[in-house]
Amino acid sequence: MEKCVTQICKGDKELEKKFRVLMLEVEVMRQDGRLAPDHIQLDQWKHLLELPSRNQRSSYLTFLWKNEKKRENQKAKKEARKLELENYSPEKSKEYPDDLLYGIQYQSLFLRIRDQSINSFDNYRALQAMMYGQSVIIDCSYEEHMVWRETVNAAKQTTFVFGDNRIHKDPFNLHMCNVNMQGEFMKQLKKNIPSICEPWFPINIHSSSYLDLFPKDKLVYLTPHCRDELTTFDPDSVYIIGCMVDKINNEPLSLAKAKRDGIKMAKLPLDRYLEWAPGSKKNLNINHMVPILLDLRLTGDWEFALRHIPRRKLMETKIMAMQKMLKDTSLGRENIFKKFQSVRRNNFFTRDEKKFKSKRTLYDDDNV
């Protein structure tokens, strides 16, 4: 712990005093039996120091405790499985003494392909896409509009994007633009993919804008807030996807950025092919957008490409849930329909009702 104090505080007496109070607070939580991890890493201590309130620190420590227990359970399961395999006697499964045993440790008709070989093959295909594939841009300029948790989610989604892209039959040449190399987003991405900054890694990372890298007339910004729909996939265009998790900030930032840069905009034709559930947002994660574009380029079929949209956002899922309630629940049909209608009424308001509701939310004493 003294090493952590030296590395974090660096001779700052005020920061050292604050850090020691924080260490005492965590130790008191452990002694009281509250949820706090046994081991906290250096970057996690730094993040705890940045949190202003005790509730936020308590929530973050609970999150770390759950992750720690999850890793411990996985390790225990792995050790139990290893012990079970060591104690397993394959001779007992033989019907006759001269039977041959088949499996990884015994005889096999197939050549074993190891994970490293598959990983090298996928990276080779992504490197081919960097030379000959169509470019797709991930705009990473929204970090200042996200809180820490949203930044972590955005980095996780970008990790999924890279994985989904490189295992596809015809991957894109991915460009990450407007990247802050010293920011929290890049720090989390390096945690998820430690080799991402290596020169051989099959992805392009730029601190500069996409306007400096590509012709302006070929750029198309995909944003759910515009009016124009993307009807067909254009292989000559360079599509831009905003890397942002907007659970708190719901402003049309991607629309404003595209207008400011003076480039074309488009949105996916979701209403044309899907029946959206009431109350569901039409903002898709980037790890949904890239697979949709990959399948759309390969097949040209919107219905096939839109299979990557989470089913929870669709009306058919709500109807199936309703049918299950009618079938399994002990409640009467009238009570269920009243509950469903109340949900629909809460999701659909007239213009005057929305105006009144927003005013009430802002100025009502009960919501302060």
TrEMBL record:
Its main location: mitochondrion. Coiled coil: none annotated. GO terms for biological process: methylation; mitochondrial tRNA 5'-end processing; positive regulation of mitochondrial translation. Residues 122-316 form the SAM-dependent MTase TRM10-type domain. One of its GO terms (cellular component) is nucleoplasm. CDD domains: Trm10_MRRP1. It is found in: Mitochondrion. One of its GO terms (molecular function) is tRNA binding. Keywords: Coiled coil, Methyltransferase, Mitochondrion, S-adenosyl-L-methionine, Transferase, Transit peptide, tRNA processing. PANTHER family: TRNA (GUANINE-9-) METHYLTRANSFERASE, TRNA METHYLTRANSFERASE 10 HOMOLOG C. This is RNA (guanine-9-)-methyltransferase domain-containing protein 1.
